[in-house]
Amino acid sequence: MGSESLKLNTGEYNTAIGYFALQQNTTGTRNTAVGSAALDANTTANDNTAVGSNTLSGNTTGVDNCAIGSGALLSNTTGDENTACGSGALDACTTGDGNTAVGREALGGHTTGNYNTSVGLNAGKAITTGNNNTAVGKGALDAYNGNENTAFGVDALGACTTGGSNVAVGADCTEFLTTGSSNTAMGHDCNCLLYTSPSPRDRTRS
Asked: CA-to-CA distance for 201 and 76, rounded, in angstroms?
């Protein structure tokens, strides 16, 4: 339903509502596109859901993706099993797999990393190629690009740029930590570290 929607389609069980929705789809099946240009480049991929203008617009063969909100997962091409809810969420992701972003521009700078989870406005916004990060709270991990960090709370680990395997729980927790690794801190506005160590065998309590 809509001009140019499902124009080339030969697949089955697809739903398209909006201008150019699923316009390039050929043999892809079980896709749902609602909104102008939603899933418009999809060709053979299956089981994608796109709700909102330009959602999953660049997707060609990526499968099992879900995008809700204007521009969510906009640039995804071959990435699989990503979920984005919020305007601009995961909008730069191209080939990353298994990422989840909830909130406006959550994981907004992400391109190729895998298995990251961000919940909150701008959460994980600077993670581009990092893997296995979790950011919950507005601005959590919003300056960071690395691996295996966990941040819970508004602006938690907000200044961390390249460190790895850090855990911060609490609003503004470790806001001054920039490049350290293997740190753990808990508490509101906490900048002291419970543990800091380059390896699990060498822990120093501070």
From this structure: 41
